[in-house]
Amino acid sequence: MTATNTFNQGPAFLSQNGVTWAERVVKADHVWQQIEAMLKAGGHELPAIPRRPDVRLIIENTSGNEIQFYNPGDHSMSKPEIIPANGDKKAVMVMVAGDTLLQQVDNAATLFNTYNLASSGLSPAFLNDLQIGKLTHDPRRLISEAYGPAPFVEQVSKLVTVSWPQDNGASELVVNPQVGASAAFGVRAATKEQAFLADFPIFVKGTTTTPERVESDGMVVALEHDWQTKIVKTRPIAPSIAKGFYGTYYNNLPIVTVDPDGTVHQINLRNGTILKPAEPVQTKRRGARVSRTSTPNKPA
């Protein structure tokens, strides 16, 4: 099988010595449906935990001229952002880059001070460096998105002081709004979201050895609720990334034990409550299973 065919197959299909193997994909939507049913049966809800707020930089257009630029977060570059010279909405919202909250704060301060944004606002020097990619590419990527127009005063009023518990054992990071006449940066209050940590206990047994569990951090699954349609969408997040999103609150994530077939066996809400399905779910795949390497017994 060629590399092109392997890519087009979706889940990796590998052919070796005439034997084809396929990666097993667990559908998060199916896992959530089971969790939801178990929670309702027991009269419980999945707890929500705070998610790290992101640093945003708000810059007002004080040039007296209309300004146009492309949002670096819009990779299609479909249409420019247009910031008017007059009116209530003549500010740019900048989402500051950084893997951690501390990195974002440092990057925002660098932009704020380097371009003297507090007094200069949306200056030609800042716009030029944004447009040529100096602020959006390595070696030091400072901006992930920039869009507008937005009302400067209204957006600045949403910035608040936040104390965020970091996930690396460091002390709490306190982020205070930094406000100038024509620019400001800071964070909004942390929002809460529902998420769980899916744990997949897989063991490997040697010829004469005790089964050893495969070391794995599992997979975090966050839930997105559409309050109008009531539809819930699942979003897998690698634990290494999720720890940055949730800080020390990561340790409060409910743990859901899931087998490789996607069947939920237990929910640990991390508050002393452990839920199990009333009746184990039986699937065809979980019935009398024939080993890939064995030969079925023929009837006598």
Most strands sheet: 7 strands, mixed
Rounded mean pLDDT score:
85
Binned, the helix content reads: 10-25%
Number of helices: 7
Poorly predicted runs: 1-16, 282-300
| Beta-strand percentage range | 25-35%
Gap between N and C termini: 40 Å
Q: How many strands?
A: 20
- Helices and strands, in N-to-C order? HEEHEEEEEHHHEHEEEEEEEEEHEEE
- Structural class comes to alpha+beta
> Cα-atom Rg, whole angstroms?
25 Å
Structure characterization notes:
The chain is an alpha+beta fold and 300 residues long. It is 20% helix and 30% strand. β19 and β20 form a beta hairpin. It is elongated and about 75 Å long. The chain starts with a helix and ends in a 25-residue tail after the last strand. The model is unreliable at 1-16 and 282-300 (pLDDT under 50).
Describe the secondary structure blueprint for this structure.
Blueprint lengths: L2 H6 L4 E4 L2 E4 L5 H15 L5 E4 L4 E5 L6 E3 L11 E3 L5 E8 L4 H14 L2 H4 L3 H8 L11 E9 H5 L5 E3 L8 E3 L2 E2 L3 E4 L4 E9 L3 E2 L7 E2 L5 E7 L6 E6 L1 H8 L8 E4 L5 E5 L5 E2 L25
Parallel strand pairs: 13-18
Antiparallel strand pairs: 1-2, 3-13, 4-7, 4-12, 5-6, 7-8, 9-10, 11-12, 13-16, 14-15, 16-17, 18-19, 19-20
